[in-house]
Amino acid sequence: MSLSNKVDIFLVEDNEDFSFLIEKAIDHIDKDLSIKIVDNGLTALEVLNCYSQEGTRPRIILLDLNLPGLSGLDLLREIKGINFFKQVPIILFTTSDNPKDVRSATEYGANAYVTKPHGYVALIACLRSLFNFWFTHHTTID
Amino acid sequence: MMTEFKVDASNCDKEPIHILGKIQGHGFLIGVNSKDQLIHYISENTAAFINDDPAKFLGKHIGEIEGRMNISNYGNELKLSQIITLGLGNGFESLNPFYIEVGGTPYNLIIKNAAAILLLEFEPCNVKGEFDVQKTIGRSISTILAESSLHSMFETAALEIKKIIQYDRVMIYQFGEDGHGEVVAEEKNSDLKPFLGMHYPASDIPTQARELYKINLPRILADVNMDCPSIIGNPKLEAPLDLTHSVLRAVSPIHIQYLKNMGVAASFSISLLSHGELWGLVACHNYSPKFIDYRAREAAKLIGQILSPALEYRLGEEDSEKFGLLNQSVSTLIKFIEKESDIVSALTSNAVTINNVCSSTGAVLVFDNKITGIGVTPSNDEVKDIVKWVIDNSQDMVFYTHRFPAIYPTAEKYSDFASGLFACILSRELSEMILFFKPEQKQNIVWGGNPEKAVMAATDGSLQLSPRKSFDKWTETVRRTSEKWSRGEIAALINLREQVIYQINRMANEIRQLNERLKLAYEELDTFSFTVSHDLRTPLSSIKSYAELLLLTNQSLDDNAKKMLERINACSDRMALLIKEILNYSSYSRSEIKLEKIDMRQLIEGVKAEIYESVHPQTLEFNIGPSPDISGDAIMIEQVFANLLGNAVKYSSNLGNAVVRIEGYVSGEETIYTVADNGIGIDVKYYNRVFELFKRMDNAKDFEGTGVGLAIVKRIVEKHKGRIWFESQLGKGTTFYVSFNNEPVE
Question: Measured between CB atoms, which of B538, B545, B573 is closest to A95?
Fold first, then answer.
């Protein structure tokens, strides 16, 4: 996928299945939503740095916790350090329900912590409410 | 004057024979102070040699009496005072005897140093025999030592001693543990009746005589009928002369009478010592008076002294030979233990057992709450009593007797096969031991006279010790006595005990280590199941998601395919639930408990509310009885009652009149809660599997569940050091009991 000016959802996820399912689910929710998926923490940081230079700002960033290259939490801290993305909501989207991870994520400035839902139907529901909240009600970011 | 002692049965042991104040008449004695050489004691028969009253010389210098005695030395012209000075400088033992002539007759002068007093004893000397004795002695000793067995050594020793002293009878006399004696070897003139094999009661040789026997190795009584001259002492000196070291010392009148009764006219004995104790005597009898020259006595003494260490060595050798043989069995048994690791089976079920370590005819292993007997043994109940008796009565870890019924009368019942007992205590606390039994050995002991009748009433009616007159053979049958435990057996059994205990400890250590490893393995398993469950969740989610995606988006699916996709969905839901429960279960074992006081009423109400919210029971009667507070981890305890009450509600939910009741009560140091229902109940065959992970009963198939709940409950209860159990009747209901310590320990 070439860089384009419009990226609605930026997903960092190393699990191919989950990336595929999210892509499908987002397409299902709204065919106009664009998504960029990166499967490595370091690559994600590089891509985001390019974005900040060319002025591409995703509407929401979804991070998995366990990532190769750079962990989700470290990546979170790096992104929060980039001024250009200050207003972009960053959501931890992970299987872990370990309270320690939740606490760290909040401390590092995550805007939400969401455990991955069990199944496709639940996933659609989850993403729909997520987008509904952050895209519709929470419009100050734009 | 010397004090007169009246000796009777009550004080015979106290008869002061060393200060009798009398000597044997074949010699004479002068006692001088070792410093000033003044005469303090003198025997009355010295008169014959000085033609004067010996009492006149008391307090005089030894030189004064010497001039009156017509003493001459051979070769050297030493005066008595010079001999004394010489002896004081060099030690009398090496110089004795001094050859002198008194009035032309050859005498041996033997000087002994008794405290401040020197005993000068003059006794006849056999000049002619001297050379022969010197020659014989070396030969005798080498002959004795050449003997291969202890017994033939005794026989040869008796023969050689008889050659030297030329008495009519020479016996080797051995003392038993109880002090009685037995003739074990004999050399005698052919016309005499044999005493070999005869036993003599302990009272024949009183205790204080035995003590003297340890000091004076050879002793002679040259003539039982000879008058015994008194020793005259300086009246100013109160102490009677101590004759302990005297060679002329008169013999106790009782002993003389004893010998007379036996028909003996002269007696000579040499002590045999083993490990410093009186092992026995060389006892020599002559039937006519017979003096033995000092040199010959010393030669005989030398044989006795050589016999003693040889005896010790040979005894030790025979012991160690037997020990070596028995100890092979011990080694075999220990190898069995090392191989089998089951002590009971290793010691009792192979070709070699504990019954082969000694000459026992029965052995019993009392170990690990099991009584295992081999051979002929008392019954298990009788063994239990014996074990208790041994624990109560034995201070030591090893106890043995060859007369068990005599100290434990109950044993008379089985004395025919258990008169001898050897007990090796393995653990006093656990009353564990190995018992060995020896059968009764009816023994005929031939006494030289009835030992019961050693003390007799005197003619005047008083109970005077009168030495027995009858030496006729008297046979006694000893019952309820086994063969003795030999030193080899004792050593082997002690070794067996030590080895077995070592093995038990080694195995206990191994079990401890296994336990540690098991604990580690459990912890690893917990971590493992946590990690695995966790990692399973992601792919499981994907499976379900794909199935749902297919269902949602693929319009070409037929109904059959749709049904199968729905099954995939349902199965992954079920699996997700199981994974959640496993995570739940392992998280309880991983987390530490935080103790706090728990308001049980509130907790139970909370659980009840949750149950009503989730399952909406229609007809349930939910009773909450007394709810005493407990200490525990609030979250975990809630989990316990959520499970128990949830189960109670669930497994009675098919009833129209379901009743669930929870109540608690304090019982001693515990608080016990019961959760009862009138539901489906638990089948007896599942009783021991109720708390196992993923185990569900046949009759529970119609109810939802994972089989993890009760496993979690049990884990939590055990983490609280509490207990859980239940009562149940199929179709009638189940009651679970949970107990918590009132003063919980973490």
Answer: B538
The domain ranges of chain A are: 9-137
Burial label, B417 (beta-carbon count in 10 A; 0-12, 13-18, 19+): middle
pLDDT at B618 over 70: yes
Q: Which of A121, A124, A126, A128 to mutate to test the interface with B (most CBs of B within 10 A)?
A: A121
Interface contact flag, A121 B548, Cβ < 8 Å = yes
- The amino acid at B655: L
* Cα within 13 Å of Cα(B534), Cβ side: 15
The pLDDT tens digits of the residues spanning B401-424 come to: 988 998 899 888 888 888 999 999
- At the topology level, CATH places domain B591-741 in Heat Shock Protein 90 (3.30.565)
- Dihedral over Cα of A44, A46, A49, A51: its sign: negative
Over residues B654-706, the pLDDT tens digits come to 888 899 999 999 988 889 999 999 988 888 777 778 888 777 777 777 787 77
pTM above 0.95, yes or no: no
Name the token pair of A45: 């940081």
Strands (E), B97-162: 98-102, 105-114, 117-124
**Domain chopping of chain B, boundaries:** 18-124, 341-442+479-485, 591-741
* Best residue in A118, A123, A124, A126 for a mutation probing chain B (most B CBs within 10 Å): A118
Asked if the domains B341-442+479-485 and B591-741 are classified in one and the same CATH topology, the answer is no
Q: What is the CATH number of domain B18-124?
A: 3.30.450.20
Q: Within a 13 Å sphere around the CA of B702, how many CA atoms are in the beta-carbon half? A: 6
Indicate the class that CATH gives domain B341-442+479-485.
alpha beta
- Domain A9-137: which CATH class? alpha beta
CA distance B427 to B47: 74
